[in-house]
Amino acid sequence: MPICDLAELVSLIPDGAKIAIPPSRSGVAMAATRAIIAAGARDLHLVAIPTSGIQADILIGAGCVATMESAGVTLDEFGQAPRFVNAVKSGEIRLMDSTCPAIMSALQAGEKGIPFMPMRGLIGSDLLTFRPDYRVIENPMAEGADPIVTLPAIVPDIALFHAPMADQNGNVWIGKMRELMTMAHAAKVTLVTVEKIFDGDLMADPLRAPATIPALYITKIAKAGNGAWPLGLEGVYDIDKKGFSTYAKAAKTSDGFADYLDFGTT
Amino acid sequence: MEYRPEELLIFTIAKLLENMREVAVGVSSPIPGSGALLAQALSGGKTGVTVLNSRTLQSLNDGASELFDRAAQGRIDAFFLSGGQIDGQANINLVGIGDYPRHKVRWSGSFGSAMLYFLVPRVILFREEHTRRTMVKRVDFISAPGVSEAGVYRPGGPSHLLTGLGLFSFDKARARFRLQSVHPGHSIEEILDNTGFDFDLPETLATTAEPAPELLRLLRTMVAKRIKDPYPEFARIWPD
What we know:
The complex is a heterodimer.
Chain A: E1 3-4, H1 6-11, E2 18-21, H2 30-38, E3 44-48, H3 54-61, E4 65-70, H4 82-90, E5 94-97, H5 100-112, E6 116-119, H6 126-129, E7 135-138, E8 147-152, E9 158-167, E10 172-173, H7 178-186, E11 189-198, E12 212-213, E13 220-223, H8 241-250, H9 254-263
Helix pairs in contact in A: 3-4, 5-7
Chain B: H1 5-16, E1 22-25, H2 30-42, E2 48-51, H3 66-72, E3 78-81, E4 85-87, E5 92-93, E6 96-97, E7 105-106, H4 113-119, E8 122-127, E9 135-136, E10 158-163, E11 166-171, E12 176-182, H5 188-193, E13 206-207, H6 213-227
Parallel strand pairs in B: 1-2, 3-8, 4-9, 8-10, 12-13
Antiparallel strand pairs in B: 4-5, 6-7, 10-11, 11-12
Helix pairs in contact in B: 1-2, 2-6
């Protein structure tokens, strides 16, 4: 039975896990994030696919994160991600800075079960300088010299995201949020929260099936109404700007953030 | 006809996008987005526009990799990048000030710059703030380099730098900017005082062309209406 409660879902995330999380507009499991903090997770390696915002910021602020791998962490119109910035400056977290297409390509290598993916660009950037795992090789298909960067495959221990609905069989409907499909394909374990349980078989409907992650990639599902809050969920509800700005203001200081964790998360 | 400073920038961008087949605009870019939509209107719809994170101004449906795949295939002709710092070789820094990783000032990150800067033929650098803080001699961190060594695959790169004070063109062979025009109300002295890098001066100094009344009307009606979807706050500069 793939459906469980939120506490059981997050209990499947061991300390030190490499967790793939989606961008802020694409099914962020915020209710599960608060449950992870409540469970006291430690040493997580977050891989933003390919960017993150409030989710990474709140996990970093709560001391759950050892490594942040991303192409960007931002609260968008609400400014810089304050707990991320603070942790960078104090050296509390290890950074693996990258660029969006490199993370997407490396995740696709994980999906395909191949060791690396080549990608154009990056040569001459300081991203490459500080990513010894990104290596420049000569394009073996070229006639002459043609340096190209190779990116090691990203194989997340966990993919964690929020979706509009799942069915009793464990199929998860994601709409246009296709990066969630890639995440589920690449990860060893996929944990999903959903707004609602659909009465029927999502894979049986030819209109829904192409936008559905089949149950064979899904480990566990928990129902979490309004589970992306204060972020939005495309086609279901918009971002709660007031709720979001409460966080953005509180997180500017350590004390404000601590108060927010104590009182502001329910 | 009176116009706002943003409208001059939008009009200038639209002129730089003449004859483009496909223009893409990243996040947090209302002025480039409006410029692309104005260019599309002026092209009679021939110029395609993709505004990321918009519901109505893009038709991508294959997740976060699709735009980059299209750029790598050569399907995107023009894109916009910015920087917390931009230097005279057109290197851009979106990461931070000071020594990496424990920067004194840390920004969000490099996003797609380290690939798109290489692959999109016409990258327009856009940064409204033109000060010695933003226009520096040498960036502290290269998110994406302005030029590449011979032999590195690079069909794309910077074509222009547009700021709140003026417009520069970029000479890739010499890795230098040349001032192309100064915006009305500003001076070359002001630009020299506020630029941390060396650049070439034009033989005759031009003033950035002002938008004609019919273009302002187009901007304030058709473009204003369409940019509202991704950028409702910005669109308030044009009351209904």
